[in-house]
């Protein structure tokens, strides 16, 4: 389906969006990628949603990406004898490994790894940072803390430890089972939660064995500090502002978001901006003005994709949320200021033949009457490089590999077509013309730019560019073999 925008939309599926009719409506409203949240739903439910997405994909005749979001290690306090307790600022409170139910003075924290990493002065955040503790003294099985921000603490509330890199495996036993399950299902992307170091990503890649691309969620200060190294071993990035905003000062999140998006763009790797983008639409058919501005900011920054979480998974208005996000994107991209911002932030380093080819394609498209840039790609790398240029004309990505088309659904501006194998450049040009005409990107009298690599079916071999007329008979008459 031709979109009238370049930024992609990721919609999370859940109780409000688990039927064929709703998934199809979300796709038609503008969802390009569907997220399966492995924190909610068993394997049977996840498998059923995956099958429905693939059925919608087949019925609409257009590739749809699927992202499986692994839960990651969840740190939680134990239970309280009374279910909950009130903590007061300035009081002492102890965390330990004792199995006894908690009270107003202590509670179990069943994660020895945390005690191994804590130091006096370390901070612990409970219940999304609503309660804050500072470590006074600690040992191998306890931490005596001072309450710096009080509140009600109750059973199994989450704990964040922003000050230290925890000696925790990025993948829990549940994550390993989930990873194997969704890779066998055939998802396109794996999102890793609570990444702290490059080794976390490498471990997941070894387990995935090429069956899915790896996307790292940046939601911990340690990941921000090691971002360049994490980006180098990842296929994509999600700026997960929920936990990031808990573990870091909220005022630090916007500049971090901007920095990470620009680094991803320079590396030609897709980046999603996520969390609380249209949060009020869980209950309301209309977003707040501030939420619309937040969505627009991510688009102006050049993010590849923007994401809906509870808005589409559990909200009352999932289709309206996708429609609103799509409308905001289309309006922003029509703004002349958008092009000014995008082009001013184009900072890619060009060191290869492929870099030069895609840069030339963009410049030709911007200086002559070119209607689209078509690229024939095996692995998706050429399309990623074209998208990094953020051209003013549509990008048509043609591939013989279905998995490549689905993964590119997350990439800015790409319109994906699965084509029959081609062995000659003439075949690549003809396939590009047919896709441009069929997708309503060009008319027979128009010109398009075609990029490909010879020899074909060799990843990373982009080395040829042609300006081609969109009338097939002219190609048959003039195109070399």
So, the CATH homologous superfamily of the largest domain?
Phosphoenolpyruvate-binding domains
Q: How many alpha or pi helices? A: 18
User: Which percent range fits the helix content?
Assistant: 25-40%
Report the count of strand segments.
21
- The side-by-side strand order for the widest beta sheet comes to 1-2-3-12-13-14-15-16
Number of domains: 3
Average per-residue pLDDT, rounded, comes to 93
CATH top level of the largest domain is Alpha Beta
Rg from Cα: 24 Å
Q: What do these coordinates show?
A:
It is a single chain. This protein is an alpha/beta fold and 481 residues long. The protein has three domains: 8-72 and 170-335, TIM Barrel, CATH 3.20.20.60; 84-160, PK beta-barrel domain-like (M1 Pyruvate Kinase, Domain 3), CATH 2.40.33; 353-478, Pyruvate Kinase, Chain: A, domain 1 (3-Layer(aba) Sandwich). Helices cover 38% and strands 23% of the residues. The chain has 18 helices and 21 strands. It has helices at 20-29, 43-60, 112-117, 173-185, 198-208, 221-225, 227-233, 241-247, 253-266, 289-301, 310-313, 318-334, 336-344, 353-367, 381-388, 402-407, 425-438, 472-478; strands spanning 8-13, 33-37, 65-69, 84-87, 92-96, 106-108, 123-126, 131-139, 142-149, 151-154, 159-160, 189-192, 213-218, 236-240, 271-274, 305-308, 370-376, 395-399, 414-418, 447-453, 462-469. The strands form four sheets. It has an eight-stranded parallel barrel with strand order 1-2-3-12-13-14-15-16, surrounded by nine helices. A six-stranded mixed sheet has the order 6-5-9-8-7-11, covered by helices on one side. Helix 1 packs parallel to helix 12 (318-334) and helix 2 packs parallel to helix 4 (173-185). The radius of gyration is 24 Å and the shape is elongated. The model has no long low-confidence stretch (mean pLDDT 93).
């Amino acid at each position: 389906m031709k979109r009238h925008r370049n930024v992609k939309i990721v919609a999370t599926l859940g109780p409000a969006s688990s039927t064929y009719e709703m998934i199809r409506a979300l796709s038609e409203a503008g969802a390009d990628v569907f997220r399966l949240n492995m924190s909610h739903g068993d394997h049977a439910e996840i498998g059923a949603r995956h099958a429905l997405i693939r059925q919608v994909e087949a019925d609409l005749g257009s590739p749809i990406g699927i992202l499986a979001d692994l839960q990651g290690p969840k740190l939680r306090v134990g239970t309280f004898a009374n279910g909950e307790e009130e903590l007061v600022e300035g009081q002492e409170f102890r965390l330990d490994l004792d199995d006894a139910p908690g009270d107003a003075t202590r509670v179990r924290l069943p994660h020895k790894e945390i005690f191994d990493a804590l130091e006096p002065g370390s901070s612990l955040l409970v219940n999304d940072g609503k309660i804050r503790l500072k470590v006074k003294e600690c040992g191998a099985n306890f931490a005596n803390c001072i309450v710096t921000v009080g509140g009600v603490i109750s059973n199994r509330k989450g704990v964040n430890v922003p000050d230290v890199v925890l000696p925790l495996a990025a993948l829990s036993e549940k994550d390993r089972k989930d990873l194997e399950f969704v890779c066998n299902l055939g998802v396109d992307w794996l999102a890793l939660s609570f990444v702290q170091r490059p080794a976390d990503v490498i471990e997941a890649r070894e387990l995935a064995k090429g069956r899915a691309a790896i996307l790292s969620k940046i939601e911990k200060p340690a990941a921000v500090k090691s971002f360049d190294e994490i980006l180098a071993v990842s296929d994509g990035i999600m700026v997960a502002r929920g936990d990031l905003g808990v573990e870091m000062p909220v005022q630090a999140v916007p500049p971090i978001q901007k920095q990470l998006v620009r680094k991803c763009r320079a590396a030609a790797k897709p980046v999603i901006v996520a969390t609380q983008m249209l949060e009020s639409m869980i209950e309301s058919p209309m977003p707040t003005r501030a939420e619309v501005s937040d969505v627009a900011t991510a688009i102006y920054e050049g993010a590849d994709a923007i994401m809906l979480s509870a808005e589409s998974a559990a909200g009352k208005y999932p289709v309206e949320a996708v429609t609103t996000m799509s409308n905001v994107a289309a309006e922003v991209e029509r703004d002349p200021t958008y092009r000014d911002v995008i082009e001013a932030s184009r900072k890619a380093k060009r060191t290869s033949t492929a870099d030069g080819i895609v840069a030339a394609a963009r410049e030709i498209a911007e200086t002559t009457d070119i209607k689209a840039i078509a690229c024939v790609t095996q692995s998706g790398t050429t399309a990623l490089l074209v998208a990094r240029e953020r051209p003013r004309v549509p990008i048509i990505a043609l591939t013989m590999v279905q998995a490549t088309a689905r993964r590119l659904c997350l990439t800015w501006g790409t319109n994906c077509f699965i084509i029959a194998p081609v062995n000659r450049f003439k075949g690549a040009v003809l396939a590009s013309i047919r896709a441009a005409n069929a997708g309503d990107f060009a008319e027979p009298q128009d010109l398009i730019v075609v990029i490909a690599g010879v020899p074909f079916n060799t990843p990373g071999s982009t080395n040829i560019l042609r300006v081609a007329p969109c009338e097939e008979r002219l190609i048959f008459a003039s195109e070399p073999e």
